[in-house]
Records
---
Amino acid sequence: MEIPGLIIMGDEVRNNLKYTGTHEWLKLSGENAKIGITDHAQSELTDIVFVELPQVGKEVKKGEEICVVESVKSVSEIYAPVSGKIVNVNKKLEDTPEIINKNPYDDGWLVEIKVKDKSEINSLLDPESYKKII
Amino acid sequence: MAIKSPLYKIQERLGAKFTEFAGFEMPLQYSSIKEEHLTVRRSVGLFDVSHMSNVWITGKDAMKLLSLTTVADVPKIGENQSQYTILLRENGTVIDDTIFMNLGDKYMIIPNAGMSIIVTKWLNEKAKEFKLDAKVVDVSRDFVILAVQGPHSREVLQKLTKIDMNNIKFFGCQYGEIAGVECIISHTGYTGELGFELQITPTKKAEIVFNKILEAGKEFGIKPIGLGARDTLRLEKCFILAGNEFEGGRTPLEATLSWTIHWDHEFIGKQAILKQKEKGDFDRLTCLECVDKGIPRHGCEVQKDGKKIGAVTSGTLSPCLNIGIAMGYVRYDSREPGSFLDIIVRDKPIKTKVVKPPFVPKDWASKN
């Protein structure tokens, strides 16, 4: 018998990113780092329907809640992988939050942080270590 | 440990993600809640709702016992008919809501998940107290319950039975074979769509029925549906979820279930709700549609001009309307349809409008 329905695999882990144990990714370019949620996280959540983004200019500490991602059934807090200042948010998510499901590592980024202390990045997970926890 | 449905293994193979609900480990979703939800609204879906309970009421006073313990006009419900009703405590608060089926020689009631022991005990106690010849037996674990819901549900089941499915009227019920397996078939559901529910025993035969329904429904794009979509489907129609809307003890008047009450008979709780009815100043379940972006959730405060006037019992994003919707108890004098109230989500007010139920009308799928 054929199986109806679609099974979403969500195991892509990109080599050029850093990760957290709470399923955020971070990509550093220059002074700033883009932050989003991993493919695994989006597939666990499925159907992302609402994103509450922070104010640009807000100072955040590593581990602090920076935004909220909601699926139909659940509310998930997203934590800052590093300390710094929010310099940009992905406004597209306000009207089309589902792009996180489609493209969690590119168009589905959440916020951009001006990193305060780059040494904090060293304590994040590398792709191999992240793969082990999902 | 959570109880697994007899269909757990095939659901796992179908890619289900599971969740614990009232002591049962049931599929939350297979593909996506949104997709499953829209499949039921537009076509047809198959649910395993074995977490719901099955209780037999037998004996010559079975009807009297049901009449005493529910708000329904039980004698009016003839053989092969079923009825939605509620059981009340003496103080007028709801113990549980349920459907009862008149199957000729006995009644079956379908209490909510995790409620079978409480309801069975309550009914047996009342039978004893009022010296009624009625026996109440919890047979929940002997049954698998499947729900086939959606505009194509009748056609799918018709392919699997010799019974003329058109003869089973809304809230009708009867014994019959589906896919060669004897079931109790009822024209009932919890989605607001055309739909049927099947009570199957012994449970080992349920897998055949489950698989045959998926096969027969293939031409309509049938999908197995989890509890996630079950919840969003019922909430769009403003159907009550006992664990949410009766939490903390609510009367049928507060829960806007007056329409279920047959006042012209004696039942447990009647005096208490008559008193409440006279006073009139009680909170009532209210439907709120978000005007602002955001999703209200269980427990969120409802405010008017910055003052608390209620709380949300159920909230979600409506997959059909793509806006936040909520039900909650609101002060009786502040719930005029068309008026605006705030729901507080993470300390911020979201503007909502009081609407008449349901959020999603019956003809939604034909217009969208």
Note: Confidence is low (pLDDT under 50) at residues 1-8 of chain A.
---
Amino acid sequence: MGVVCTIHYNSRLASLRRNHNQLRMRVGFFDVESPERVRVVRTAVPEDLVYPGMEKSLVWRYRVSFPAGYEASYQAGVGLLKADAPCINGSTSTSFGGGNPKSSEMVVAIAFIPNGGQWFLSNKHSGGSSILQLPETFSPESIDDYVVEPLVDFGVTRTFASDEPICFLRVREKELVVTRNGTQSKNLFRGCAVYGFNGTHVDAFAAWQRGEVNSMKEALK
Amino acid sequence: MIDSSSRKASDDSLRTVGHADMHSEATVKHWGFRFGLLELLLITAAIAAWIPVIVARRQIPVLETDIQLMQRATTDLIVEDETKLTVRALQSVWQDMGVWKYQIPPNANLELRMATEGINSLGLPQEFQTVALPAGQHTIQLKNIHNSEGQESIVSLDGVSVMWQQHPADWIASGASSSSTEVQNESGTYPLSEKLTLRETRYTWNHPLAKYQHAYVSPDHDHKGVLLWISPRGRNGPATPLFVATSPMGVQRSTGNRQGIRIGCSDQKGVVGLLTVQPSASSIMGDQRWGNSSRLAVSVYPIEESVTPTPREVKTNRNGAEPTGVPFVLTPSISPPGRGAPRLSNDEFVQQSIRGGGSKMGVFAHYQPFPSGAQPIVEVLFDSAHPDRVGFLPHAAPGSAPMKACQLVTQFDSRYFWRKIEVLGLSDADAELKAVPTRFISLKDVSPRANLSTGKRATTDAKETDHWQSVAMERLPWVGSSSTADISRTAENGKLRMRRLSLATDVMDSTKVKFPLGLNARWEYGGIANRQVWWLPAEQASGEPIDGVKVDVRSTLFFPTTDILLPGGPAVGNVRITIPMPATEPVWFAIVTDPTIVL
């Protein structure tokens, strides 16, 4: 009896492990056990998700695990930004999520999408979406001309404390912006960024965005 | 060390013990748990055989949970029943696109349908594009873009465009939408015999006057947007009904044109006995959501044979409704509702009220006896050809005290700021169906200091406004014969001619009105300019007058049921239509969009 059960369960376990490994390769897996922190892994973008004619789209897709009570909120911005903070001037779109009593998972997709001769910054996640039009001077077609900072590369899990901001993507020009009077800004670039933050710390995030550098800080990679 | 003598003695003693001691030794063996090596190995093997099971039973749920979570991030379709429809929504990378995977068996006979208009909560659009769904596993993609250039909806199957719809920019002015679906992000199994909505997006209507505001339209109205659904091939659901009945909280019944005017019977204090009126959404576009509070209503008052010809003064709280009126119930039949009769469902109510092959509806408001003994029954008529209008035809209930006339009195009018009345020129009073110019008389010129019945100013300098002003029927313009035919009960032979009472507002942009502090939001009107219109039977085609229909208006300085002054001066507070009894022709009432308004 025991031998029969052992064979049965081992077979089942082996099958699940195979499946688990395959999925892990395809969609990423959190190899860090820290349920009190936000965990992020980058995943591949299936071909099904790219609409015919939109193959030029650039997509960064993440699996994110939130601890219990985390109010997953997002802000996308296009305009002027620092190299380590959200957009301080330009168009922004902010959305707030309610706290889930249990730990939860979400897929977050940040994309540059061409449509009707214009480019858009899209932020799509399980709780909602936002879209911002990019200025004509900002061309994702020549993305190599920009500094591109995704949150995390494939195969790596990054974790964040609940009060830390999460920069899912920042794309900015390499040179500091030149102001109207011809002088170069000290710390501002043209670009765009998509942040995640805990809605319970919205005031701190807003203050940080306004320039209060001690209010929040991006976690070091 | 044991010596030989003692060993011998011992052996002897063993011999002398005999059978009794042998039995004792066996007992010791039984209670001693002695294991041989073989037993020990077997027990170890048995335990070892179960350890992997125990470990596996601990690990399997963890792996299954992980796999389930990771599968959500994949685009895999998990098929549990090959004989049914399996569908899964994939999380697309941007909001204007939807992606689904499905699998169906051969000969499933399903098709994919797309509609962009006629989307409502009561049924499926009757006009749609369709394409057969191939058997096997496939991917459906919907790209739906709504921007300043218009709307473009494209549906692809496995990357090949199969349906396309383009609308121009002026198709709808909307900056927002709401979406829903019947499909989850995990694979789900569905029967082949039922429709399945993949995406329903409805565009909200923009407030026509205010920026960044949406105008509420109930879900049972047709909306523009995009509806994508899977349906059994060739199967069309029943057409969305033209007439509806609902029972929102605090309201016994509300019924009428699905996309037009509706009347209701309310239990709420201050509204009992009033036929509450919900104008067509397009006539009050931009006004706040109606909720359960009536903002327009009609009272019914019987005039008994025995009373003097002077109409009984309606006891109202200024221009408001009576706190408690004579209650009534709405039924589909003119027969008095039986006591203890089961309450009809809303669907049954509508079904039993339908007339004219489905294009018309008639319901009856059965009033309890008034103190005088008069007991009216008001037939309420709806015509799908004129969804903005409602008709009223009073009857006497069996056993009612004789009625000389029945009065319909509008309530809460002042929130709409109707201040002008359309009249013929005095010299045109005899004009018949010729195109006679009409003009709107400003209320400040004609009421309260002017007498509409003569067109001359009243001699008294009355400051109070609580008196009725009679409007001579001869001063009201004729309605064109074609319009008359449409709304007359004698429509088929067109034997009736009508006059039109039309009240217009001078507030063309309600968002500019500064409402007084403390005013209940119920009385703030924020919609487009509109008119109150009555169609009144006046003459048979033969020229024989239909005698007795009278029109009175009463102006007010105040918002309904309050002592708060109206900004801009007095406005119409009530309109009273007196219908002689017995009545054979209905009067028709509507709130219509002001034709001069340009949105």
Note: Chain A has two domains: 1-29, 31-210.
